[in-house]
Amino acid sequence: MGTFEKLNGQDEQQTLGMGLTTWNKPDAGDEKTSEKEPQSETEKKEYLTIDQVVDKIYNGLNLKLVLLFIVAASPTSQTAAQVYMTIFTGFIPYSEWTCVSEKCLNLLAESNYSQAFYSAKPMCTNQLVAGTDFNWTSERTSFSMDWGIYCESESKLSVVSSFFFIGAFIGLVSSTAVFDRFGRKNGAIAGNMIAAAATIAAPWFPHYEVMLAVRILQGLGMFINLTGVYCWVVEFSPSHLRSTVSPLILVTWCFGYLVIILIGYLIPYWKYIFVTTGALNVLLIIPLLVLPISPRFALVRGREEEAKNILEAFSRLCNNEICMDKIHLDYTTRVQNYFEQIKDFKKYPTFRKQTLLCVLSWFIVATLFYGFDFGWGKVSTNLYSSYLFAALGKVLAITVTIPACNWMGRKHSIILFLVCAILLFFLAMPDVLIVKGWTLEFGACLLGSMAISAAYAINYLYTSELAPTSHRGMIMSLCSSAARVGSFLGIYTSLLYDITDRRVPLVLFAGLSTIYVTAVLFLSDTTGKRIPETPYDVEVMAGNQKYQPVENGVDKMKLESA
């Protein structure tokens, strides 16, 4: 792809290896703020916002551009792989065991040697002990078999899975200041390497307590990586392509879902699954090391010349080279810190309301999303086929969001998908066998899961467009943190199938979806609108009469307080 120069003011160059272009960064001394300067008639500059520049650069998608976005987004696939890897490394093969004790053999005789005896209920109700009353016969290994996790201790497996989201919550809360201070790219790289190190180290310390720590580090690292990469890609996208680029990132995420299913199917040893997944982390993060920072991030930090150099190089990648020397970027400088960002939630009412509604939406959709993803074993008999159908369903659902968003807009698309999900949850309640191995419950839940996946995909785009650039890293981290709480709780909803009627989880899912729809109704639609750069812009775009547009280059926070 050509050569990418490091953005450190040096002449050193590094090659990505796919033939794209060169990204230049000026020396630190060249940085300027957005102040108007006297110009001669022959040196008049065109005043454009960064949205207008990005839109001007794009003259249509090309292969180099598509490859750039795919390569940049590829590390996000490992988020899905590490979320779901405990399904395939910690499974409990309740149908694959044989009796070895007299007690077990007598119970088998009482069942008339029925093959149905080899299931969870006889094992658990009779308190059969692995290694004493029976031996596992599965050709695959899992840490659940190694550590005696089954029957009464099965909840330990849910705990191991859910600890991933504890780590994700901690990482995202702590990174709210990192993304807006050190950049989306640097945060994504750091998160990826933390998760990779923990995943590769896990097999060398095969103990339950160590696995809990590993899951925390995996979650901490991978969701920092996912949020950072997402912000980076969206901030390089023009307004008319954001509804296409955003699903592309989430389709890449789903690819990781398919990858871990394939790895789990092909590799029978749980320790090797961990090592393989960790190695993929390291491999996929390499391209991001040589890509530039987001020009929006550079601009909001007051580094105009750096942003211009990135945009100019990006125009060459898009086969539409422009000279940034003839363009004056219209933007608002902000010298801010974490506490100033927090104060803005009190200062700007529309900004505060939108953020709170987004946080609620993310909490609910993550509860629904992962409630399904860790519960397919309860509504289907084949582990690999059920998760394969679920993964393919997610790819299809996320792909459908592209025409849906372009046709109906972000807000109305989310509402449509959620209404469909509510109806499907109620449709899943009757006991109807369609064909052998397929019940109405499984079919309706599969379609309902697809609808929730589509809403989740649009939620990423919707929130990133509602959030101003100056706070986008913080807001995406806060929303994703709320989603991690929902993810943690969602895993345990699968246990409801064992202690109550199967319709109870479905009613719960329908109720949560209704609350989600209500929250979205109070948000504005962002379709076709420019991305706000500061909380002040959010108020202006919402029509708040207290806030009016101001001249280029002036800090709107300072103007209002003056």
C-alpha termini separation? 49 Å
In this structure, how is the largest beta sheet organized? Answer: 2 strands, antiparallel
Number of strands: 8
Spatial order of strands in the largest sheet: 1-2
Sheet-strand content, in percent, reads under 5%
Structural shape: elongated
Structural class by sheet pairing and helices: mainly alpha
* Mean residue pLDDT: 81
User: What is the radius of gyration?
Assistant: 26 Å
Low-confidence stretches: 1-37, 551-562
How many helical stretches?
Answer: 25
Helical residue percent band:
55-70%
Characterization of this structure:
With 562 residues, this protein is mostly helical. It has 25 helices and 8 strands. The strands form 4 sheets. It has a two-stranded antiparallel ribbon with strand order 1-2. It has a two-stranded parallel sheet with strand order 3-6. Strands 4-5 form a two-stranded antiparallel sheet. A hairpin with a 7-residue loop joins strand 1 (3-5) and strand 2. It is elongated, with a radius of gyration of 26 Å.
In short:
The protein contains 25 helices and 8 strands.
Give me the secondary-structure topology.
Layout: E1 3-5, E2 13-15, E3 46-48, H1 50-57, H2 63-73, H3 77-89, E4 97-99, H4 102-110, H5 120-125, E5 134-136, H6 143-146, H7 155-174, H8 176-182, H9 184-201, H10 208-235, H11 242-266, H12 270-290, H13 295-300, H14 304-317, E6 327-329, H15 338-347, H16 349-373, H17 376-379, H18 383-408, H19 410-427, E7 433-435, E8 438-439, H20 440-466, H21 472-493, H22 496-499, H23 503-521, H24 535-541, H25 556-561
Parallel strand pairs: 3-6
Antiparallel strand pairs: 1-2, 4-5, 7-8
Helix pairs in contact: 3-7, 3-10, 3-11, 3-12, 7-10, 7-21, 8-9, 8-21, 9-10, 9-12, 10-21, 11-18, 11-20, 16-20, 16-21, 16-23, 18-19, 18-20, 19-20, 19-23
